[in-house]
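Notes from hallway chat w/ T.B., transcribed later so I don't forget. T.B. wanted the structure written out for a chain they're using in a teaching module, and asked if we could keep both sequence and structure tokens in one place. Agreed to drop them here.
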Amino acid sequence: NTTNLLHLLRMVVSKIDLPADFGIENLDCPVHGNIEINLMDNQKMKANSMILGLHSPVFQNMFFNLGITTVDADDFSPDIVRVFLSSLYSGRIEFTMENFRELNKISTVFKVEWFTRKCMTFYDDIIDDWVLDSHDDFDSYLYPLMSWMIDEALHAKVAIKDSQLQEIALQKFLNISHRHYANLATGFVLHYLDDFSGASLDKLDIMIKMSGENVSSLVSIVRTSISEIGEKGLSPNSRYLLEHIDLVKCRKVAPELCDEIFDILTEGIDKLTGPDAKFVAQLLRSSLKSSFSLNSKKIKIKGAENSSLSEPKYEVFFNVLLDDKCLRKVEDRACELPDDEEISFVLDALSDSKDVTNMYMVFEGLKMFTSNCWNCFDHFSDNVVEKLMLLKARRGFSYVHPEFLEHLGFRLNPRALNLLLECRDLVSFRNSVRIAAEKSVNLNKFYSEETLHSFRYRRQNCSSNLACGFIIKVTPGTVEQPDLFNIQLVRRGPEYHSGNSFYPHLINVSPEKIHLVIEELESDSNIRSRTISWRGKPFRASENGSFYWQWG
């Protein structure tokens, strides 16, 4: 009966390593073929239920649970179905760039895991590193292959809701840029977005991710696309790039092009109406503020290089005390997804966020999400680690210190922690240093009085017996001015008095290179990190005047 057949099939599966050779001569055989496959144009094939069920849980359920004896495969071309079924019988796949898309789709539809892995391998190997090392006509060889990879990745993301190909393509692109062709993004983006007006938003998005910090090509495309803004308005694609490119960084990479863009926007804004006019006005306003901020750092007073005007006394940490509303919105959307998709969705949101400036903020955002959705750690896999590696490479972020992950709470899930600690592309004792303040402090002081916190460190290859160091000042808010609460790096001033046990060396010290964490010693002597990236500024309760962080 059906139950016995299913039990027998599971016993056979446990003893057979797939793929295996079942004899291609047995495909479409009237003796063994107890399943009828319906193809396009009324064509038919015969196949064996046991062989198909060995490979696919979809087939297994159809034949042995539901009792179905026919399979409709007319969504695929007959040639693709024949190649697919032949591979299940022979264990060998004949891939080409032309049949890859449909073979990848059909293997995903019927959940043939080994077949899908072979698809990923073929896709990843389509650009051979050895060939790149010796190829003379680099652009004509590489550009068509990269275009094919991206086209396939975008199609898979839409057609079968699978983003694995996109991740492989991005990683391949980054590896080629690093090993072979540093300016790959510059030329390829112009090549791929040749028809900019007709490009989908998915195409623009993947080009933004591939460009990373090297956005000169995208800036050039924007410049050309808005040249007639006064007559035609702002196209959706132009607006999308202006919204998603960091124009502050653009000024550093392509200052002249950026100036041209803002000149065109300034001259054309009077002819715009509605949302376009509002958007351009906001863009110009934010650009003016950032430009003023950048220029103010460069101002020098003649004859007063050593004056107090030549350098700011304090620098504010902008990567702490951020409002967590954006993360809560991401969390609400993620919780509507299947459990195995939640972490990937949150990581994609963190990857695209301009507020995120280092990997520590990524892990803290992930920790805030997992605190409310702890079961999602059941799906913390190698794929999640690969997404983290890709995010780190694309955004140019530094390594994370291993102890940070342990204290953050990942130790509560040993499997996830071990996956992260074993990844040398993410964690490092050498490239990221943990420095503790010289003295501990009662958290209540943060809410009631100004506090100074000294940090000592030893510079590499430093011959001095005296350690270097810096001071961080925490200024609490008041009932009248709750937003006054600030955490600042002290660059100079009386805070660096002679009683310090270190030399104030701040040449390579800046808020951008420091990530602050409050480490709390718990009753069981464990250290717990109180992350302050996404907690917002502390607030004072009106009923008793006490300050509280958003965590309690």
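Follow-up for T.B.: Residues 292-310 have pLDDT under 50 and may be disordered. Might be a good example for the class.
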